[in-house]
Write a structure and sequence with these properties.
Blueprint lengths: L1 H18 L20 E12 L9 E21 L2 E16 L11 E9 L23 E5 L5 E2 L21 E10 L2 E15 L3 E11 L7 E12 L10 E16 L7 H5 L1
Antiparallel strand pairs: 1-2, 1-11, 2-3, 3-4, 4-5, 5-6, 7-8, 8-9, 9-10, 10-11
Length: 274
């Protein structure tokens, strides 16, 4: 069963990636950089996928996984950005996914590590800059990734790309603040600002709506306290009108910060030094 669930997870991520292939670059996980290098924050939550099966007597197929996301500051370095040497930060993401209710190690593709060098000046903590230009992505100077036990590879993208392997969050053009909220993080009350946004992608065959709620908390490392994502995917024949779209799958993710700390070290440190 565990092997089947891990295989289904890879299929699910592949389908989502194809649906949102052009929307993978986003900055929604990084809202600030902690002052002290080595600082980290850990999230825990769930990933649920409901697959429509209108012709099945058993009804829709529902699959659930446990997720953990660790974001760490793992190094400071100066690098050339916009024509001059500027302070940059190595930030490492470690995403772990395994079947819900199973106290076992994740499958071959269940651990995804993504390490990038980001110019500190590009992290402004707001959806738009002083001239109200949307901050749609964070630039990446260089980086590495490792999936499961596969060899480490250099990243080729020039912008932070966390979707869909690190997070289901993407860029939301209508992201807007709402009411404040109080959360309990690691036994401490934290005030967070709720932000909500949506993004719709549609072509002749498919339509995907990604809706997210973010709890932003400047007091926490990297500025994010909690997030929820719901992705609704519809399909139809290419020649059919939009009214013929039918729901095929729904993905729901809920993640919340549970712990922060210091002393983080990169899992890809040796590869960076080569």
């Amino acid at each position: 069963m565990k092997r089947v669930l891990n295989s289904l997870l890879q299929i699910a991520l592949t389908v989502v990636c194809l649906a949102w292939g052009g929307a993978s670059e986003a900055q929604v996980l990084i809202w600030n950089l902690p002052k002290e290098d080595g600082t980290w924050i850990r999230f825990e939550g769930t990933y649920k996928q409901t697959q429509s099966r209108p012709n099945s007597a058993a009804g829709d197929q529902i699959l659930e996984w446990q997720q953990e996301l660790l974001i760490s500051s793992v190094g400071k370095q100066t690098a050339e950005y916009q024509g001059k040497e500027q302070p940059c930060r190595w930030v490492e993401f470690r995403s772990t996914t395994k079947p819900a209710g199973v106290d076992q190690a994740p499958g071959p593709g269940g651990v995804y590590i993504y390490k990038v060098l980001i110019p500190e000046v590009s992290v402004i903590g707001k959806p738009a800059d002083e001239e109200q230009v949307p901050v749609t992505f964070l630039p990446v100077i260089e980086g590495l990734r490792r999936v499961g036990d596969r060899p480490v590879e250099k990243v080729t993208e020039k912008a932070l790309a966390v979707y869909p392997h690190i997070s289901q969050l993407t860029y939301y053009p209508d992201l807007a603040p709402g009411d404040p909220d109080s959360l309990l993080i690691a036994g401490e009350n934290v005030t967070a600002q709720i932000n909500k946004g949506t993004r719709l992608l549609e072509d002749k065959r498919s339509r995907s709506l990604n809706a997210a709620t973010l709890w932003l908390a400047p007091k926490l490392p990297f500025g994010l306290a909690k997030f929820g994502v719901k992705i609704e995917r519809d399909t139809k024949l290419p020649s059919a009108p939009a009214s013929e779209f039918k729901r095929t799958a729904v993905i729901e993710v809920e993640m919340a910060a549970v712990e922060t700390g210091a002393g983080a070290r990169s899992e890809l440190a040796e590869e960076t030094e080569q």
